[in-house]
Write a structure and sequence with these properties.
- The chain is α+β, with helices and mostly antiparallel strands and 185 residues long.
- The chain has one domain: Alpha-Beta Plaits.
- The protein is 23% helix and 34% strand.
- An eight-stranded antiparallel β-sheet has the order 4-1-3-2-8-5-7-6.
């Protein structure tokens, strides 16, 4: 397994804001919003003059079984594909009730009840995704979820997000912001 990868998502404001992604919609789903921005960059460093920065670590999967990892690895596409001109950054914080559950209890809600991985598999390889863990870094969100997809797969992505928000897992979400982006240029 590669070493953990620290990623900074920097939101900036203004017509000349740095970032390879332009924000076209930004809304709180539940809890407090983030300050509005017009562009987002992501990478190993904080963007100069950023309005806000969220950081997360890409590391070992927490809830996937070996079989699920093998299946995901067989169909997941990488980020940065030329045709993937749309993206979503969805930071999420779950309640303390979630974190006081034992690992097997969280797994049961995540997959056996909510079918999170199984639902997500239906969108692969069209929707590439990467999860960034933030809770242990003292960040305001527990997870930063990043998705990239081609414009023609937007409805597939919207259906997935709507389905997941109706599952038992989402009853533990206390803060979520939905940021939709288009590749700059």
């Amino acid at each position: 397994m590669p070493p953990p990868l620290l990623v900074h998502f920097s939101g900036s404001q203004g017509a000349a804001a740095p970032g390879s992604w332009r924000v076209f919609a930004m809304s709180p789903v539940c809890g407090d919003p983030l300050p509005p921005v017009t562009a987002i960059s992501h990478g190993p460093a904080v963007a100069p003059g950023a309005t806000w920065t969220l950081k997360g670590v890409v590391s070992n999967p927490r809830y996937a079984t070996a079989s699920e990892m093998k299946t995901l690895g067989g169909v997941q596409q990488g980020l940065g594909r030329g045709e993937a001109r749309c993206a979503a950054l969805i930071p999420i914080r779950k309640s303390e009730a979630w974190w006081t559950l034992a690992q097997d209890e969280r797994r049961a809600i995540f997959e056996e009840q909510s079918r999170h991985t199984a639902r997500s598999l239906r969108t692969l390889p069209a929707v590439a995704r990467r999860l960034h863990h933030s809770r242990d870094l003292g960040e305001p969100f527990d997870f930063l979820t990043w998705f990239e997809f081609a414009p023609e797969h937007k409805s597939m992505f919207e259906d997935l997000v709507a389905e997941l928000r109706q599952t038992p897992e989402w009853s533990f979400v206390e803060r979520e912001v939905d940021i939709r982006l288009k590749r700059a240029g």
